[in-house]
Structures are given as C-alpha cells and as structure tokens.
Amino acid sequence: MIDTTDSAGQGGALYIEVSNEMASDSLSLRFWDHLVSGRMNVTPGVAAKAAGTEGNMFEGSRNFRVFEAAFPPVARRGFFDLSMGGSRLVRQWIYLPGDSLRLRVDHSSGTFLFGGPDAAFYRLQDEVDRIFKEERFNTDPVLFSADREFYRSDSITESLWNRSRTRPENLYVRMQLIGDAEEAWTETLRYISSHGLDHPAFTILHRHRDVLPAPRLALVEAAIKGQILYNGIQKSELAWHAIKQDPAKLAKLRDWVDTFGLATQEISHPLLAQGFYHFALMESHARQIPIEQVYAPLPNPLREEVIAFYILDNFNRMEDRLPEVIAQNLPLVESDWIKRRFYGLLANAAGTFSAEGIYLPDGSKLDPASLQGKTVLIHYWISGCVFCVEEHRRLMAGLSERYSDSDQILILTVNGDANAENWRRSLASGKYASESSLNAWVPRGTGVLKTYSINSYPQKMIVSKEGKILLQSILLMEPEDLIRRLEQDADPMTFLSPTKPTQP
C-alpha cells in the first residue's frame, strides 16, 4: 500500500505573485480536504479570500501583486483552486501536509514560475495540465447534432465551413459535425485506440522519477489516468445508443478501461471516480445489471469515491429510493467522511422539515408554524437562471394560481441569491414567481439551502402535513404528477369536487 502521508496534519504556506497587468485586490481560493467533484452537492470545499499587497524590489516582487495564504491542515492530501476575477489560475491541484510553495503568475510572459521547497511537485502538475490543454487545443472540435445542416444554413456559416475544409490539416483544426451514435462511436474508437498508458503526460511523469518521491508521483499518475479515462468516457457517452445495442462495442470500451489497472489502483482521484462512475452507469444499463455489480470489484478508496459521487450527485433525483440505495452501498464504504454524509442525507429524509433562515419580503423571518398542517410545495430558484424563468412559465404560475385560496396546500418559492436586493428585483419582474404564492429568500449557502444541499436550480421539495419531506428533486416534473402528489397528501376528499379544475 502506498503511503501518501507527509507530516500528517500540518498546514503549509502559499505565497503567490500576480503581475500587475491582471492583478486585482484579492485572490479567491477553494480548498478541499476530500474531493470527489467540485459540484457543491458532492464535495463543496471551503472558500477563502487572500488580500493583495504591492510587491517590492527587496523581495524580488516589484510590479507584482503579492498574496499570502496557508494550506489548511489535512491528514493525507488536499486539493485547491486559485481564481482571480473571472480567470481560474489553478484547478484542483493536489497539496500535501506541510507543503510550501511560491507561485508567480506572469501575465506578460504567459507563464507560471515555481519556487520554494516543494516547487517540483507543483511544476509537474502544471506541466501535466498544459499537455492536456494542448491536446484539446490541437484536437478537432466535435459537435453532436441530429440536424447537421442547421449549422450550415446561411451563406456566412456555409462559407466558413467550406474554408475550414481547405485549411492544411497539419496546422488547423476543423469542426466535426456528428449526426448519429455510430459516427460518435467512430470518434470514440479513434480516442480509445490511441490513448491510454502511452499518453504523452506519462512521459512528463517519467522525467520526474529522479526528482520527486514515489508517493507524490503516484498522486499525479492517478490524476493523469483520471483525465484520460474521463475524456474517453465523455466521448463514449455520445455513442451510447450504438454501444447499448452492440455488446462488441461495450466489450471494446471495457477492455480500454481495464488497461488502466483500476482493479489494483491504490490511490483515487476525482476524475478517476467520475469517469468510472459514468462508465459503470453505461455498462449497468447495457447489460441490465445493478450498477453496484460494476464498481464493487474496485478497491477502496476509488470504489467508495465512485459511490460517493453516485449518491451525493444524484440524491435529489432518487426520491424515495434514497434510503435503499444508501443501505446497499454502505457496506462498501470505509471512509468516515462519506458515511457521515450518507447518514446526514438519511437524517434529512427521515426528519422533520426545518424552515431555518427563511426571510419574507418585509424582512421578517418565516414563522414555521405557518406551514404546520399544510402540504407545502417549495420551488427553489435563483436570479439569472433561464431554466427557473421557464419553470415558472411552464409549471409554477399555474400551480400558484390553482392553490392560491387553498387552506391545505401552500406554494412557497425560495430564492437563493447572495443578497436580498437581487431577489426583490427579480421578484418584481414577475418572471420568476407569482404574487399568489408565498415568496421568500434564503441567503446563499445558509439555512435550508445548506441543510438540504440546495445548490442546483430550479429544484422542488414537497413537505407533508406532518412536516416530512416527501420529495426533493431537480428532475423536470409534469403538472399532473405534482398535483397528484400534493393532493394525495392533503385531504383527498377536498379535491374530488367536479367543479375543481384538474389542470393548473
């Protein structure tokens, strides 16, 4: 077993210089002690800000903005992001306990420079990132569309398309328009036939064999495998309809996945977990077997991180199947942090709804007693979300009107903006919610949003008359389905009147 512990539990130092051409007053950071996905539902991490100061010639940082932060203590390894303004400088790099790094982001030269005792480890991660970025840069972009002619339907796009076909192939890339699953399989086959453990990123890794200790190399090796696997599975998903109908194609994809040696993989990585989960989903559907049967042979920690991604990313789609899915997978999990997250989901599902931190338009807090004895449909939304606007038009406006005079069913909309002014402006527009519903706001990342991991919008929740959560879902639902669920929990006799409309 590879031990990746270095000075367990110690924090470390992070010293960052950003050239003045791109520097702002602060630097945004996000740290994870456990990372399976950057999605907030899965492993949200901890956000932080670092204030900048002017560099000076005595410290070699003249014309740079300087930021100082600390790597949070971790038992084995952590991950971090660095962002400035709208630019992400570093994405999910690995750090180890006690690491110290000086990083210069030089806009004028377009380079990262590394210093400090652990510079070589971070230089390697940067080199690996760049090889994958170059690969994307030099790969023909692919567009999957059943209506390929739509993208060449006017004279300008047709002219651009024709010009792209005349460019030298050794210098220019050209868009590939793919119209069906068989064409997508051809593209997938091209990738999985030429990529794997012979990828150029492994050449970079090998060059560092004499520079870095084996545990650090093993972490980056897992990251490289994860990126390649993830890329290949993404391509194969476009070919899903061809794969599920042809066992030979599925076997070819499985053979490629097996080349990564995941059956003996001692170290996990977020992209390994995500990539294998999506492969397991395809194989289980194609072979009509439980998904657990596909990932159960994996060793931990990879297996349990696949499970964590599966459940934490999908719990708000599982509805009443959630307790059963968790029960099936808990015996395969060893890590305490994953168990705690699963038990938290079960507690939320089994417990009484907590109306914590919900504010009304007048600035007062919602009285939880006002919900008692009523079946409540909660619609979570956020400003600027086009899907939320469409959901109000398609569904919520009609339901709000239908139950506006009901003493048994309440429509509650909850906005998750960072500040109340945004919410009030959006509310006044009439595009997101109706005056006939009870409209409320919860500051982003607090109250019920935090308790029930509401990070995707729009999202629905049904709370029973007894305060039990009957539904939490981000799935698109039809009016008839929601009406049935709401009226089943309320007094059914109330809604049997022949004069009562059956459509919102």
UniProtKB/TrEMBL annotation:
It comes from the Bacteria. Residues 344-491 form the Thioredoxin domain. Keywords: Cytochrome c-type biogenesis, Disulfide bond, Redox-active center. SUPFAM superfamilies: Thioredoxin-like. InterPro entries: Thioredoxin-like_sf, Thioredoxin_domain, Thioredoxin_ResA/DsbE_sf. It is found in: Cell envelope. The keyword Acyltransferase does not apply. Signal peptide: none annotated. PANTHER family: THIOL:DISULFIDE INTERCHANGE PROTEIN DSBE. This is TlpA family protein disulfide reductase. It comes from Algoriphagus oliviformis.
